[in-house]
Design brief:
4 domains; alpha+beta; six-stranded antiparallel sheet; disordered N terminus; eight-stranded antiparallel sheet; about 500 residues; 14 strands
């Protein structure tokens, strides 16, 4: 989408200090609605981005969650030619006669910081490209939808005409999802605070309990304690297996709204060829482990005869591709990306259908376990891909990782035996010592109040201090070491 300047008024943006915003808006009014809106978002949002300075143009590129914004300041002078990395926090634009002056901070190609640099310009052109919103996954399908809704809505921060027809139809629902289920009580959007579109879907599925809880959460006549209690109950409830169809419907709607966009990597030809190679290597490696399917979703099915009513176990691996944030300016444009392996296991009865990887988080399944291998530049080594694919299969199937594999993904390098002994000895000793001191303090208080013949020392000698220390230490150390070791065993799978 290409924009050039034209005289018109700008828009308002509520999140910035009003007086400063109005001053900037007035200064940029000659450049039109869309361009002034984007420049204001750049400055007031404290954005950062790559810059290229040529003889008559300063071009900035800012990568958002699902857009790439290019702003070209034309007929410029005042800066040395070269590539820079710009910081727009504290930037300012002033009009001087027929020209404008932009002040900002930047780092040059030698990583030298240049504060309050200035250049003059007379014209601005803008180009913005939207790509598919691929959200980072944080081990929670509901949070995944919530974060994706946030990212889609964030496009409006830089461009008013940013949504396609499918997104426009979903806007009321997306606003509600951006607060669901974590921030419903604190919803600040007047158009979403009643959650009417979600309630309509709850009623269609006959999820009466979700309707009741949502009505309680949105009832502002109730005190915050009751509303927060209802929200906590709703958050715990939506993980039941019967609510999965609702999640899958919402997920499908969001996916459909993004189908008209290219992926980030399709926009960037420099990285797309390497990514295609990475995809092929992942496909081949997972097939060697017995997985079927086509990138990015793979499954492996095994018969499960351990229980009479369970017929099969399905292991899932989903490859989620994420562009690295533009915050990491040490990497050149298009040189870094993430392939996130999301792993899970379903235990299914004969009548149950195989879902997708997110189905593993509902009901009594193992749940989804993300890995986060980062590939930078041309360093998409086949050995690296194979190593992470191997770890992903183990995580999906609940197999124990080696010490090297745990270290690779940032898990604890302690073995379960070492972890048990460490918690048992040090945790037990610490608790035993604390309880012994507490008993000793209570004895002192008892002696001061009641007194005792023979003095305090004689009284203290009659107490089994060693037994108190050992009893408290062994009992607490045993319980805490068992609990943490079981938790670590599940996490390491």
């Amino acid at each position: 989408m290409k924009k050039t300047h034209k005289a018109d008024s700008s828009t308002e943006k509520a999140f910035c200090p009003k007086a400063y915003y109005e001053e900037l808006k007035s200064t940029l009014s000659d450049f039109g609605d869309e361009i002034s809106y984007a420049v204001l978002s750049l400055i007031m949002g404290h954005e950062i981005g790559h810059g290229a300075i040529s003889e008559n143009t300063v071009k900035f590129e800012i990568q958002g969650a699902c857009y790439i914004l290019e702003l070209s300041f034309n007929k410029t002078y005042g800066l040395p030619i070269g590539d820079i990395y710009a910081y727009f926090g504290g930037a300012d634009i002033k009009k001087q006669g027929e020209e404008y002056v932009l002040s900002f901070d930047y780092e040059d190609s030698k990583d030298e910081f240049v504060p309050e640099a200035q250049f003059c310009f007379s014209d601005i052109t803008m180009n913005i490209s939207f790509f598919r919103c691929d959200c980072y996954y944080y081990a929670s399908p509901w949070a995944y939808i919530q974060n994706t809704a946030h990212l889609i809505l964030s496009k409006s921060e830089v461009c008013k005409s940013c949504f396609n027809d499918e997104e426009k139809a979903l806007l009321p629902l997306l606003k509600e999802l951006s607060f669901f289920p974590d921030n419903m009580v604190n919803c600040q959007d007047d158009t979403a605070e009643e959650f009417t579109h979600l309630i309509t879907r709850f009623e269609r599925y006959s999820f009466d309990e979700l309707v009741t809880l949502t009505n309680t959460i949105t009832d502002k006549s109730l005190n915050d304690r009751k509303r927060n209690k209802a929200q906590a109950k709703l958050k715990a409830l939506i993980w039941k297996k019967k609510y999965e169809p609702l999640w899958q419907e919402l997920y499908a709607l969001i996916l459909h709204s993004q189908e008209g966009y290219p992926t980030f990597f399709e926009l960037d030809k420099n990285v797309s060829s390497r990514l295609l190679q990475a995809r092929g290597n992942i496909q081949k490696r997972l097939e060697l482990h017995g997985y079927a399917g086509k990138y990015p979703h793979f499954t492996k099915t095994e018969a499960d005869r351990s229980k009479a009513d369970i017929k099969r176990t399905v292991y899932h691996i989903f490859c989620n591709e994420i562009p690295l944030s533009d915050w990491d300016h040490t990497k050149s444009k298009g040189e870094s990306f993430i392939v996130q392996f999301i792993c899970g296991k379903q235990t299914l009865r004969a009548e149950e259908l195989t879902g997708n990887v997110f189905s593993c988080a509902f009901g009594k399944s193992l749940g989804t376990l993300p890995l986060e291998p980062v590939y930078e530049g041309t360093d998409v080594k086949k050995s690296t891909l194979e190593r992470y694919a191997d770890i992903a299969t183990k995580r999906a199937e609940g197999k124990r990782l080696t010490k090297e594999e745990r270290k690779e993904i940032g898990a604890s390098s302690l073995s379960l035996v070492q972890l048990f002994l460490m918690l048992f000895v040090f945790g037990g000793a610490f608790f035993g010592a604390c309880m012994t001191v507490a008993f000793f303090a209570m004895l002192i208080l008892f002696w001061l109040i009641d007194g005792a013949e023979g003095g305090f020392i004689a009284l203290a000698k009659d107490y089994p201090w060693l037994q108190i220390f050992l009893g408290c230490g062994l009992s607490f150390g045993g319980i805490i070491s068992i609990v943490f070791t079981v938790a670590a065993k599940k996490k390491s799978r």
